[in-house]
């Protein structure tokens, strides 16, 4: 392994309510809260596969389009995954087909304040 090599520890999302948004994403992904520092919360997979998301409280409101989004894959029937996301509070923004694959674009509950 090269000296000084970096790897991604986790992706961190700025938000108004990190505990609420972290719990929502943990429920959607079937992950758990692995760190809760109040203003900074991290969720991760039970598989300990290195995947993790951080949520940090910021005071300033979001003013532009996000330049990062998460592409998720369904583990099981696609309609069930879509229904589960809606039941948990995701807001559907678009629904279309690309290259013979169905795509649904959702906004997480925290993001809906800026739509």
Gist of the model:
With 115 residues, this protein is α+β, with helices and mostly antiparallel strands. The protein has helices at 18-29, 78-87; strands at residues 11-15, 32-36, 40-44, 52-57, 91-98, 101-107. The chain has a 4-stranded mixed β-sheet, covered by helices on one side. A two-stranded antiparallel sheet has the order 5-6.
Q: Describe it for me?
A:
The protein is α+β, with helices and mostly antiparallel strands. Helices cover 19% and strands 31% of the residues. It has helices at 18-29, 78-87, and strands spanning 11-15, 32-36, 40-44, 52-57, 91-98, 101-107. A hairpin with a 3-residue loop joins strand 2 (32-36) and strand 3 (40-44). The longest helix is centred in the N-terminal third of the chain and has 12 residues, at 18-29. It starts with 10 loop residues before the first strand and ends in an 8-residue tail after the last strand.
